[in-house]
Amino acid sequence: MKKIIFAFIILNCSFHFVSAQAPAKLWDSFFNGALTGKDESNDLLTDANGNVFVTGTSFQTFNGGNFTTVKYDASGSQLWADHYSNTQASYKNYGKKLVMDKWQNVYAVGTTALNDGDLAICKYNSSGKVWSKNYEPYWFSTYDDYGIDMDVDSSGNFYAIARVTSPSGNLFDMYTIKCDSSGTKIWDNNYTGASADDYPVAIDVAPGGYAYALLQSFNFFGSASQFITTLQFFSGGVQNWFSK
To answer: What strand order describes the sheet that includes 118-125?
Structure first.
């Protein structure tokens, strides 16, 4: 009968635990709007010099809130603050997402209180705002439209997506727009999955100008459930494919 022998080797190991100290705070900064209201931040980015950009909502000049973007230097000192708004009652202005191009220009996408809510975009350079624009996708569409995400390509064009009220009665659609660096529209596209809501999530631009958009869409004519949907657009705005 064969014996199976298990050999156990125990090593005498010494473990040294290093007690890590809490990181030291370098600075903090607070922005409080001049009016009473809940100031909210939605996104942040930094540039090559350590400057910090923040966008969101502050109650600064309009009691419905402002689309506010603030710049701080690397030491936390506020360099400038911009407050973009329209003043339609019961609607809110806010910044949602920040991106930076290769020339260190910063773009903020969000929503402005006009036409029951419009896609809004602001462009900033190192000194502050260059321009601000709102985009109403459809001439008759005085309905809720919300800026969601954006990206920039190597030529300085930017691409933005918004959740918009469908012109075909399909509740919310995904609206995609490409503009040049001055904010002039190059092309736009409306995507609707079926007779239900579509919720855009993100957009990204690849080399060659291909744009990819991500959304949650409702498959009304299939399983009648929500799907993760991805679309690809050619550089000219034509939809190449989509996948659910």
So the answer is: 94-100, 106-112, 118-125, 128-135
